[in-house]
From TrEMBL, chains A, B:
Transcription keyword on record: yes
Residue span(s) of domain HTH tetR-type: 20-80
Cited PROSITE patterns: HTH_TETR_2
Protein's UniProt name: TetR/AcrR family transcriptional regulator
DNA-binding region: 43-62
SUPFAM superfamilies: Homeodomain-like, Tetracyclin repressor-like, C-terminal domain
InterPro entries in the record: Homeodomain-like_sf, HTH-type_TetR-like_transc_reg, HTH_TetR, Tet_transcr_reg_TetR-rel_C_sf, TetR_C
Keywords: DNA-binding, Transcription, Transcription regulation
PANTHER family with a match to the protein in the record: HTH-TYPE TRANSCRIPTIONAL REGULATOR RUTR, TETR-FAMILY TRANSCRIPTIONAL REGULATOR
Length: 202, 202
């Protein structure tokens, strides 16, 4: 039996809300909670209280608190990490990578993401969730942008976009997880310059 | 007081060994123990027993078991990850990256390293040790090889070798830690091809 516990401010005076609206508010609350308090303090109960949704609903929609946290994270960072599409692939990639570097360097996301990836190394369930709900969809968005550039003839025909993802965003994750060198705007710019123009001399 | 516990086979009948020899055997034992049993089972006591060195010596030379484990790891993988220098930078980088991919994909190193990097995300002391005793020295070796190629006129003058490290080995760590895509020989080859020749079309 589910008992009503604390008052749920977001629900007060609203009556029944459409499921899509509840879902949006749950995701927003989950992202906010994760980014302000970190994974250690993240619980389904707190998200329920913050969003005004019932815990039963949350447990019905998300199989675990890890799944809810990752969906909340994706929802929170998605707009910041959108791919611009001006047709200039160098400028678009640089802008997106600068936004990513900024997010990791200057916000709580830069502490939460390494924590999640770190725990995933010894927690197979979290690892699967992280890939399914965060890294694979983010990778797909990047591949899509690179495929568009290929279709427009801006990238070589024989280039595998999946490898490019590792040489741009993967390079950033490397500095995030093993911080021998800093994450800077100049780094984001050099990544794109190196890869588009090539670093070799004939 | 240090009491003699189990028999220590490696020391039997040898008398006093030179410090350099003891150090070599300790590192070999540490690397072997880490790669066969993982970090969870790694203790200074076991390394002492395996190497025939006294625990007092080990505690004198290494500030913690993490430091000893990382020095043992570096010692164990060093020869496999040596940088060939044939003068052909594309071939040399590809050979080194293939050796790295092989080590991570086909040996216990590919389980130990993610475990160490994972724990380092929430353990500042391990993080500092990992950088000081493993990633920074490995990075320095790669930068050295890239600087040689620059001096020989094989890489563009304005290229920062530190960024290249993230776009080659960092890209591999990305697939190791977030395994959305596999670590393969073809991947190692594509990393070098993309970066040397560039992926853009004018």
């Amino acid at each position: 039996m589910v008992t009503q516990q604390a008052p749920e401010p977001a629900r007060r005076g609203r009556g029944r809300r459409p499921a899509a609206e509840v879902r949006r508010e749950v995701l927003r609350a989950a992202g906010e909670l994760l980014l302000t308090e970190g994974m250690a303090a993240f619980t389904i109960e707190k998200v329920a209280a913050l969003s005004g949704a019932s815990r039963v609903t949350l447990y019905k929609w998300w199989p675990s608190k890890g799944a809810l946290a990752l969906d909340g994270y994706f929802d929170a960072v998605g707009p910041t990490l959108a791919f611009p599409d001006t047709g200039d692939i160098a400028a678009d990639l640089t802008a997106q990578l600068r936004a990513f570097v900024h997010l990791m360097r200057d916000t709580r996301a830069g502490r939460v993401m390494p924590e999640l990836i770190g725990h995933a190394q010894t927690d197979p369930e979290l690892s699967a969730l992280l890939r399914e709900r965060y890294s694979a969809p983010r990778r797909a968005l990047a591949v899509e942008a690179l495929e568009r550039a290929k279709e427009r003839g801006r990238l070589r025909e024989d280039v595998d976009p999946e490898v490019v993802v590792d040489q741009l965003w993967g390079a950033c994750y490397h500095r995030l997880l093993i911080p021998d060198q800093p994450l800077t705007d100049e780094f984001a710019e050099a990544l794109v310059r190196n890869l588009l123009a090539g670093i070799g001399r004939p």
